[in-house]
Amino acid sequence: MKVYAINGSPRKNKNTATLLLKALDGVKESVIGKEIETEIINLYDLNYTGCKSCFACKKLSGASYGKCGLKDDIHEILKKLSEADGLIFGSPIYFGTITGQLQSFLERLLFPYLVYDENYSSIPPKKMPTAFIYTMNAPEVVMNQIGYLKTFNNIESAIEHIFTKPLVMYSNNTYQFDDYSKYKSNAFSEEAKAAHRKIQFPLDCQKAFELGANLIK
Question: Which end of the chain is more exposed for a tag (fewer CB within 10 A), N or C?
Fold first, then answer.
């Protein structure tokens, strides 16, 4: 068994990446006694684009029918993911949605499995379990007020149509800088941010662990 975490953040050791690794720890804990591998894929290390509308994945009898025909840094990764036993996506929220890097990746991952038949059916090799971790500066009340959840639901619906309905968690009001005094950031109280992180982020890490533990179940 192999479960992959897809890190849509440019940072490899901050909020999103930390929670993804905790989720992978939960996956490993849930299957003690069974062989399982986990891996985190950092998208910002890779050179690729979103879908280019070549439609090679839709061409009947074509070599790339049902899979992305573009050859770049994620070509082999998409092959690996097609046989995964679980996928966990993670992204910080920029301007109310996931990063462009993850959006482009999802285009390449999901679109080849979408069939242009009368039912818009899907043809992934596996209907594997999925999960999504969102991290954001916005407090939970703001997230709910300004419509983030509608955007997130659209993303999750696309994943559900191809694979399965994702397990979801949110990490809100995140701590963004190591030293707020070095940045123009007086919209925020560093003291309040630090106090919130001290209490909430360990809880978020536990939630991520539990999300991973429930993924394979």
Answer: C
Residue 128: the pLDDT is: 96
Predicted TM-score (pTM) of the model is 0.95
Mean pLDDT to the nearest integer, 146-168 = 97
H/E element holding 195?
helix 190-215
The whole-angstrom separation of Cα 23 and Cα 94 is 22
Q: How far is CA 6 from CA 57, 82, 159, 212, in A?
A: 22, 13, 13, 13
Tokens encoding 118: 């009368």
Cα–Cα distance measured from residue 139 to residue 94, given in angstroms and rounded to the nearest whole number: 14
Per the prediction, the chain carries an average pLDDT of: 95
Beta strand 86-94 with 97-98 is: antiparallel
Strand segments (E) across 30-124:
37-42, 86-94, 97-98
Task: Give the whole-angstrom CA distance, residue 96 versus residue 141.
Answer: 14
Cβ contact 111:66 at 8 Å: no
Q: Using alpha carbons, select from 119, 53, 55, 129 the residue that is nearest to residue 88.
A: 129
What pLDDT, on a 0 to 100 scale, did the predictor assign at position 211? 98
